[in-house]
Amino acid sequence: MPRSLDDATLTGLVADAIAAPSMHNAQPWQFRYTRGGHTLTLLADLDRALPEEDPATRALHVGCGAALLNLRVSAAHHGLEAVTTLLPEPAAPAVLASARLGVRAVARPAHENEARAGGEATAENEARAGGEAPTGGAPTEDEALAALHPAIEQRHTSRYPFDDALVPEDVRALLVAAARAEGADFSFLTSPHLETVLGLIRDAEGYNRGDPGREAEQHHWTRNTKTEAPVDGIPDYAFGPRDAQEQATTRDFVGTGALPGRARVPFEKRPQLALLTTSSDHSVDWLRAGQALERVLLLATLHGVSTSFSTQPIEWPDLRWILRDPVFGTGHAQMIIRLGYGPTGPRTPRRPTNQVLTIEP
Question: Per-residue pLDDT tens for 190-207?
Answer without folding.
Answer: 999 999 999 999 999 999
